[in-house]
Amino acid sequence: MKVQFRITENDYAHLARFHAWRNFTTRPSATQLVAFGAALFCIGVWMPPAGALFFVIVVAVFVILYAVALLVLTPGRARRHYKQYKAIPKPIAAELTETGVKFSNGDGEAILPWSKVFQWRQNNQFILIYGMPVLYYIVPKSIAREGFNIPLLVQRLAEHVGPER
């Protein structure tokens, strides 16, 4: 069944945070690991001999700064992108097919076959279907009220793509 929905600015900001948090907690990038390692090395080199407390404080500050970036800066950037991306507030239609998920809007349509899905993940409001590590299609779970079969989508994703990541 084909169902229409809209993505709001708040949805987009919330999903940007969810995407960033899940990516950080599941697979830190090489850049993140190198930066964290370099910071720890520099702290260790310049740390006073009895500076264990200083070290703990510095690490805590890094963690707090990262959390602020994740919780404040990421959604802010997503809101700015939402305002710049002219197509996203327009109605989007989703349809579950045997071969994948079909997405369409006033500008065209695309079928995302199961074989081209990189990974998927979900929270209590949305399912994100990744075509590549940083590009995802958004499926709101609220469209179940319109007749879209969310449990079948999750089942097919698990069968064809694998477990949620």
Question: How is the secondary structure organized here?
Answer:
Layout lengths: L1 E4 L3 H18 L3 H17 L5 H33 L7 E5 L3 E6 L2 E6 L5 E4 L3 E7 L2 E6 L9 H11 L5
Walk me through this protein's architecture:
Helix 1 (9-26) packs antiparallel against helix 3 (52-84). The chain has 2 domains: 2-6 and 89-160, PH-domain like, CATH 2.30.29; 9-84, no CATH class. The chain is built from 4 helices and 7 strands. It has 165 residues and is α+β, with helices and mostly antiparallel strands. 48% of the residues lie in helices and 23% in strands. The model has no long low-confidence stretch (mean pLDDT 85). The two termini are 26 Å apart.
**Total of domains:** 2
pLDDT averaged over residues: 85
Order of helices and strands: EHHHEEEEEEH
> Radius of gyration, rounded?
20 Å
List keywords for this structure.
165 residues; alpha+beta; PH-domain like; four-stranded antiparallel sheet; three-stranded antiparallel sheet; 4 helices; 7 strands
Short characterization:
The protein is an alpha+beta fold.
